[in-house]
Amino acid sequence: MEQYSNLSSGNEETEAPDQPEIGQRPALPAMEALQQLGQTSMPGSESNIFCMTIIGQIEGHLILPPQNKTTKYEHIIPQLVAAEQNPRIEGLMILLNTVGGDVEAGLAIAEMIASMSKPTVTIVIGGGHSIGVPIAVSSTYSYIAESATMTIHPIRMNGLVIGVPQTFEYMEKMQERVVRFVVSHSRITEEQFKELMFKTGELNRDIGTAVGGADAVKYGLMDAVGGIGEALKQLNTIIETRRQQNGIAGIQQQAPYAPFSPSATGTPTETLSGELPQ
Fold it and tell me: pTM value?
């Protein structure tokens, strides 16, 4: 028994069960980021553009049911700060496919994107509904897929509602915050946006408007109809313009893209360069 015990302990020492664990260790941080944040870790020097996804329902102060696919604003904001501080990141691309969610959380994300000093481009794929509209227009340049839609409707309130005039005044003030932000970060007028917001007969059992891709550009909500290819070209063009404005020559990682020519679906690139922060 003693000999068997020694043999058993010897096998434990000579076997290499740690071999698979060593191979798995480098993938653990990426897997944790994928599970917790819904995306991989921050790209390194091989890419100067950071891609971020905002999908599902935007979760605010209350935790949503586990079957809901959500985007937590406490996960998005630190990533925006990290992208702003990383000197290797020169631009940010945000992919949107959201049904909306918490108003204050959505406005917080939109304000953070709008306040970034680096160029940002948003793409609405599928849908950018409700509070997703301010996030979609908060970037330097915005795109929407031709088949995507954006639902514009008045804000709603869950939970205890007190039937007093102050409750309506509070909702009206919060709604004005959304209207002011969208109007100040897009080309749509306040009258046009409110007309779409309070329109009746468009949505079943609801007030508001479902705006398609081409109509969103026509109303001035979004800058152009396009997808990832157009967004990357536009973002690289803005980055190159900023380099020239700041006097940074540098070695480009890829050939520069030609500026977009004026078209009916978007604003020409040349008109955008004057709006970039110095």
Answer: 0.73
